[in-house]
Amino acid sequence: MNSIEKIPVLLTIRGEQYFDDVDPNETQLMTDGTMELTEAGMRLTYEETELTGMEGTTTTFEVKEKQVILTRSGTVNSQMVFEEGKQHTSLYETPFGELPVDIRTSSLRHNLSERGGVMDIRYSIAVANTATGQNCFKIQVKRKHG
Asked: Which helix (H) or strand (E) holds 128?
């Protein structure tokens, strides 16, 4: 089995959170990461920084045709599964224990290839059966040439 090539990429990750009648809360992060092509799709990996409040955490997006799994490991450990039209329950680790979090994905679109591309995930989160608003992830992937 060949070792999987890690391609250096520049990731622009934009997060938006919408709450009732409140302007969207937006965060944007540009960071270096890697892209690996896998048998099922691809894997995007980057290190969180103090800017995101999760320094010491590695974030991975496992991108398959109809599903994206976001895994964080390190100081923050969590896994979220995004699959259009479906709900998945994840455990979110906090300093006070684990919280069950329901993630319902309304839309999952991407045109990612080994050349890069864009991924757009729209989802809502419910913590302990209480909805916390609509969320959106937009991730732009650009290959670094060097």
From this structure: none
